[in-house]
Amino acid sequence: MRCVLSVLLFIICVNSQNTYSIPPQKLIVSEKGFRIRIPDEPGIEEFFFHGNINSDVDFLAPNAVILSAKKPINGEWLLEHKREGFKAGDFINYWVHIKRNGQGYTSSSNHYQIKDVLPDYPSPTQLSSRHSNRPKNEAVSASTPRFLSSNWQSHETRVISTPKSNISTSTVSYQWMWPDD
Predict the structure, then answer these.
(1) Are 89 and 139 in contact (CB under 8 A)?
(2) What are the structural domains, with CATH classification, of the chain?
(3) Nearest 5 degrees, angle CA 67-CA 68-CA 69?
(4) What is the pLDDT of residues 81-134, one digit of tens each?
């Protein structure tokens, strides 16, 4: 009996070392589109977003919005989807995938209800270096701006056509660019 318990305890310890929790995602919705970000963590190699706007998300079918980033910049991974016309009451259904230390981790499906649409993303002068522990998927309003930098530059652009609306939207991932001295 003691041997069985020792083996069981060993298996539990080994399995607990292989677990990983995907960092909470923060969404900012503006009249220009939305941004999603996660904090950088050791071992993260890529960050992917798959989602649909005002419709269900499917893990097996192509989704209308597909974003990816291959580099963390200034301690975070940032993706942007440019699309005008968001309004309070719209929703974004999505899932994220993170490649970490060569292994893939996929979140469950998330539902994000838009409560407020900012006129623009927070400017660098509004930004704070204070990190806060907001609940997962909490909206960021004009009174709670996030820290973004004017040094974020467009890194990659893809055009995706949404089958239902036949509207083309652009998708941009961002890379930190050091200012010229």
Answers:
(1) no
(2) 24-176 (2.60.40.2140)
(3) 140
(4) 999 899 999 999 999 999 999 999 999 899 999 998 988 877 543 443 333 344
Pair of tokens at residue 25: 């995602």
Beta strands 110-113 and 76-82 are: unpaired
- State phi, psi for 42 to the nearest 5 degrees: -55, 135
Enumerate the H helices of the chain as residue ranges.
2-17
The dihedral over CA atoms of 110, 25, 65, 97, expressed in degrees to the nearest 10, equals -80
Q: Are 162 and 169 in contact (CB under 8 A)?
A: yes
> What distance, in Å, lies between the first and last C-alpha atoms of the chain?
69
How would you class 65 by CB atoms within 10 Å of its CB: exposed for 0-12, middle for 13-18, buried for 19 or more?
buried
C-alpha–C-alpha distance, residues 177 and 32, integer Å: 22
Report the pLDDT averaged over residues 48-71.
Answer: 89
Q: How far apart are CA 141 and CA 110, in angstroms?
A: 20
